[in-house]
Design brief:
Helix content of chain A: 25-40%
Structural class of chain B: alpha/beta
Radius of gyration of chain A: 29 Å
Number of strands of chain B: 11
Radius of gyration of chain B: 18 Å
Largest sheet of chain B: 9 strands, mixed
Distance between the termini of chain A: 61 Å
Strand content of chain A: 25-35%
Helix content of chain B: 25-40%
Structural class of chain A: alpha+beta
Distance between the termini of chain B: 46 Å
Number of strands of chain A: 21
Strand order of the largest sheet of chain B: 5-4-6-7-3-8-9-10-11
Largest sheet of chain A: 10 strands, mixed
Oligomer: heterodimer
Largest interface: A-B, 69 and 68 residues
């Protein structure tokens, strides 16, 4: 499926500069978590590069303006560009702010040739005063690289790939049908933007996409896993998901009518977040995830609004909610809803335009974790190689009564699933604040009243006397200053073998606040509020 | 004389930095420090955790969690080494993003290699060292920290820490003799350090947490707090 991509170079810089009314011609960097995410041409001339630490960038270019990465601003600023493109073709898929794709067949027929169409698209955006390039190729990946090749920040530097292009101008470059593999072959391996894989391939002496593509697919899958196989497919010029090819079942769409109409973004975003969860869950039970999302909004008096957001991997519920929020911000900034002429939103519809199998590990083309996250994950892998895979764990909120039950620890890299539903009601669980130290093994404790008699908890969940002294872990008794509870819990009462009747009591002692647990008359210290 | 010069230079450098910061746009980022929770900025000498520095927190785990929460909320990745008893529910309540938190509860003998590997990539590495840390190892880790611009947060003593936070008293609210529940706590924190504004130790009171779960500096007149005996870290 021939694809046309429209790419605005250094979009994070352009958008952030516009937001603070600076010219994108100045030396500017946009940073995320201390690393350069994008830099302007002027900054690049000073030797600033993507992925560099901000401090290093500032050393190279002292009068550098450092701006924060803000996806909302980037999406909002991109909205006029998409609106302009929609004047030329109906179906524009946004891949990320600054990059979108369309099927080239219709426009090519209308404008005479693919090159003419690509030039027309790029010129249309350039007329808005925004630097823009267009590329045409068989796949989205190759088309994006074609657009990037013209901008001068091209990923090769060899110029060899230019020979493949059969038509080019200052604004557009067309890779002939079937020419993707040949076009991609001389590109540096870096364009894959998967640091871990690239690192490994470099050490194997593989420096170009062509050299990577020459490896047998089966060996790549065996050595680098499914994520490597996807990258290998890209390098070979195989686009598994051509644009606009796959229609998902429309009955999975999530739609809400709202009354009274919504005219505030935050209200709409709140609704969208709930809908995103619903959509992700509905797809999830079918083993699917959304990869391309149609957002449709009906307003009181204005036209129906529609946008498509495409992602290069499965979108999570958060990814979906983010895109809807960005899009709503974009529409609000162009007054497509919320003002007098259009009125508020009366209907919001999210439809999965494309789905992919969920669970197959597929990284984003442009990395979903960000530079910092990928470095962190690499460090984790290194620690796992030292100590074993299970030595690094992630915490997942979990349902339960006690502080230890309410967190599930899963080995890093495994699916982060809760064992018990955390949103279900757990009567008898303690409200926040939670203890900052949860003992791995509860310590046995003795709780006595003012006369030195042991304190117990009755079957009706009342204490037999006020606790006055607590001693635990063989230590001396400390005075109780205040106490509260008990919070009784009957766990698994339906199963006599595992049923537990326990009660929890909070005490403040002279050595700090403790969470005590009593079971069968025996007291334990379960956690400390330290 | 030399000290005077040093003092003087430091003052002018700070003044210069303030000047530059105020002249620039508010959207600008302080790249030399990691952000803190709003409520902690009044207590600490600077408005962030300086990259490359070591911070020791003694006597309270909650304060360490609150220190981690600021960078974590701002997108940093954090790791905790050697603290199997950390209350992760409390961590989430203070605002730590659990999906960017890696835990290595039992590093065992490879403790130092694990911390060294993590320092290279994580913005904040929190550790609870088992036993004392050999001075040579500590200085090697510190050097590595400076190179990579992370922050080492020690739950317990750390020889030569740039910033040392110790709780000297606390008082819980919301709980009586058999009624109510733990709601809010005031803690008195002593802040000391090796240089700069904290070379002379100072003390302040914090809500840790306040009844709405946030962290804030106590603004009302100070109430006498009970001294707590510090329990040895397990």
């Amino acid at each position: 499926m021939r694809t046309l991509t429209v790419w605005c170079p250094d979009w994070p810089v352009v958008a952030a500069a516009a937001a603070v009314a600076t010219s994108p011609g100045e030396p500017i960097v946009v940073v995320e978590s201390g690393l350069v995410l994008a830099c302007s041409g002027a900054a690049r001339e000073h030797g600033v590069r993507r992925g560099m630490k901000v401090r290093e960038a500032q050393t190279r270019c002292p009068h550098l303006t450092v701006l924060r990465h803000d996806p909302v601003i980037e999406a909002r600023t991109f909205e006029p560009v998409v609106t302009a493109l929609e004047e030329l073709t109906p179906r524009v898929a946004i891949l990320r702010p600054g990059l979108c794709a369309v099927r080239v067949r219709g426009p090519a027929r209308y404008f005479g040739s693919e090159l003419a169409a690509a030039e027309r698209f790029a010129a249309h955006v350039t007329a808005l005063g925004i630097d823009c390039r267009a590329g045409v190729a068989d796949g989205v990946f190759a088309a994006t690289l074609a657009a990037r090749t013209i901008a001068g920040t091209g990923p090769t530097g060899t110029g060899a790939e230019q020979a493949v292009a059969d038509a080019r101008s200052e604004l557009a470059l067309v890779v002939p049908a079937g020419g993707d593999p040949e076009f991609l072959a001389p590109m540096r391996i870096d364009v894959l933007d998967r640091p871990e894989l690239i690192d490994l391939l470099r050490r194997l002496g593989i420096r170009t996409l062509g050299a990577f593509a020459a490896l047998p697919p089966r060996d790549v899958l065996a050595r680098f896993g499914s994520s490597g196989a996807v990258a290998h497919g890209l390098a070979r010029g195989i686009d598994e998901r051509p644009i606009g090819s796959h229609r998902a079942a429309p009955d999975l769409a999530v739609q809400r009518e709202v009354n009274p109409p919504i005219d505030r973004i935050d209200t709409a975003a709140f609704l969208a977040a709930a809908m995103a969860d619903e959509l992700a869950a509905a797809l999830g039970v079918r083993g699917l995830a959304c990869a391309c999302l149609d957002i449709e909004v009906s307003t009181e008096h204005g036209p129906q609004l529609h946008r498509q957001w495409r992602h290069d991997g499965p979108m999570s519920a958060d990814d979906i909610a983010d895109r809807v929020r960005w899009q709503l911000e974009g529409w609000a900034s162009t007054r497509a809803f919320g003002d007098i002429s259009a009125g508020g939103i009366i209907q919001l519809r999210l439809e999965p335009a494309e789905t992919v199998a969920a669970g197959i590990y597929q990284e984003g083309l442009w990395g979903g974790l960000g530079e910092l996250g990928e470095r962190a994950v690499r460090a984790i892998t290194r620690v796992q190689s030292l100590l074993g895979q299970k030595a690094v764990v992630a915490a997942v909120p979990n349902g339960g009564y006690g502080p230890a039950d309410r967190i599930n620890l899963v080995p890093w890299g495994d699916e982060r699933a809760a064992v018990r539903e955390s949103s279900a009601p757990w009567p008898g669980h303690l409200p926040a604040p939670s203890p900052a130290t949860v003992l791995a093994e509860p310590e046995s404790a003795t709780v006595t009243d003012a006369d030195g008699h042991p304190v117990g908890v009755t079957g009706r969940a009342t204490v037999t006397a006020s606790p006055a002294l607590v001693s635990y872990d063989g230590g001396p008794a400390t005075r109780v200053i205040g106490w509260a509870g008990p919070w009784p819990v009957e766990e698994r009462w339906w199963d006599p073998a595992t049923a537990r009747r326990v009660a929890r009591v909070q005490v403040v002692t002279e050595v700090g606040a403790l969470l005590l647990l009593v079971e069968n008359g025996q007291w334990w210290v379960e956690a400390r509020y330290d | 004389m030399f000290e005077q010069m040093f003092e003087h230079r430091q003052v002018s450098a700070t003044a210069l930095r303030n000047l530059v910061t105020s002249a620039n746009d508010p959207a600008q980022v302080d790249t030399a420090a990691l952000p803190l929770l709003q409520g902690l900025t009044g207590l600490l000498p600077e408005s962030g955790l300086r990259r490359g520095s070591t911070v020791a927190v003694e006597g309270t785990t909650s304060l360490a969690l609150a220190l981690l929460a600021g960078p974590s909320q701002a997108g940093s990745w954090c790791a905790v080494v050697g603290a199997p008893e950390l209350g992760l529910l409390a961590a989430a309540e203070y605002g730590i993003a659990l999906d960017r938190l890696a835990l290595i509860p039992r590093p065992g003998q490879a403790w130092a290699s694990v911390v060294a590997a993590l320092i290279d990539a994580f913005d904040v590495v929190a550790i609870r060292p088992t036993g004392s840390v050999p001075p040579g190892l500590a200085s090697r880790l510190t050097a590595r920290l400076r190179k990579h611009g992370g922050v080492l947060l020690c739950l317990g003593q750390w020889e030569g820490a740039d910033l040392r936070l110790t709780t000297v008293g606390e008082r819980w609210d919301g709980l009586g003799d058999g009624h109510g529940r733990l709601r809010a706590r005031r803690v008195r924190v002593r802040v000391s350090g090796r240089h700069g504004a904290v070379a002379v130790p100072r003390e302040g009171q914090l809500w840790l947490p306040a009844s709405d779960g946030s962290v804030a500096v106590v603004t009302e007149p100070p109430t006498p707090l009970r001294r707590v005996q510090l329990r040895e870290a397990v």
